[in-house]
Amino acid sequence: KAGVTQTPRYLIKTRGQQVTLSCSPISGHRSVSWYQQTPGQGLQFLFEYFSETQRNKGNFPGRFSGRQFSNSRSEMNVSTLELGDSALYLCASNPSGPGLNEQFFGPGTRLTVL
Amino acid sequence: TQLLEQSPQFLSIQEGENLTVYCNSSSVFSSLQWYRQEPGEGPVLLVTVVTGGEVKKLKRLTFQFGDARKDSSLHITAAQPGDTGLYLCAGLNLNDMRFGAGTRLTVKP
Q1: How many Cβ atoms are within 10 Å of A15's Cβ, its own excluded?
Q2: pLDDT by residue (tens digit) across A65-101?
Q3: Which contacts of A34-40 are long-range, i.e. CB under 8 A and separated by 24 or more positions?
Q4: Among A63, A89, B21, B47, which residue has the least CB neighbours within 10 Å?
Q5: A111: part of which helix (H) or strand (E)?
Q6: Cβ A103–B45 below 8 Å, yes or no?
Q7: How far apart are the first and last CA of chain A?
Q8: DSSP labels for B32-77?
Q9: Residue A113: which of A90, A83, A88, A87 has the closest Cα?
């Protein structure tokens, strides 16, 4: 089976812009979670989607949003980008979802905000 | 302040040495996971421990969950260069998952 895929792998944006990141889970996995990883804060949970519904949400501002499609693919959107949004954004899928107990991570999208 | 404190932050050792990394918290978790992350990749799940006092072995890696389910350790025997990476612990409660900042391990040949 192919692993979790994320596109794009690298992205450079400027402050104030918005960005959309995409994640395709492992085939058959219906739960998708998103994380932000920075050197200062480490890995932080953003949100989880299962069957097109947001199940859980971390402590991030409303500028961070997401959605899931009927084929379980998910997108994450960040509006009005700030310098501090520069990070590695990781997506993970769960075969026995919903839940965070057994996750397979993708390689991430590295976002740089200038 | 991290909910989960990992120590040491950095560890550089020679091939063949043993090492232990720690993951400590003041909070109780229903389960705890260890991941290894290599540069340019996402974390890969190594183990999940659920029961207080539980010990799990995965080849040269030994994982222990504290009796009170607040802390955990990872011991690597006879480390190899392939063990190099960022080791992350994560505590889970229902739908909440918190990660430690990680221990960056370098094993020199």
Answers
A1: 11
A2: 999 999 999 999 999 999 999 999 999 999 876 667 7
A3: A34/A66, A34/A74, A34/A76, A34/A89, A34/A90, A34/A91, A34/A92, A35/A89, A35/A90, A35/A91, A35/A92, A36/A60, A36/A87, A36/A88, A36/A89, A36/A90, A37/A87, A37/A88, A37/A89, A37/A90, A37/A108, A38/A86, A38/A87, A38/A88
A4: A63
A5: strand A109-113
A6: yes
A7: 37
A8: EEEEEE-TTS--EEEEEE-STT-EEEETTEEEEE-TTSSEEEEEES
A9: A83
Residue A23, number of CB atoms within 10 A of its CB:
27
Two tokens, residue A83: 């310098």
pLDDT in tens, B58-90: 999 999 999 999 999 999 999 999 999 999 999
Write out the two tokens for A82. 């700030």
Say yes or no: A4 contacts chain B, CB-CB below 8 A. yes
For A106, which of B2, B35, B42 is closest by C-beta distance?
A: B42
State which amino acid sits at residue B95: N
- Helix, coil or strand: residue B13: strand
Q: Which residue has the tokens 């519904």?
A: A53
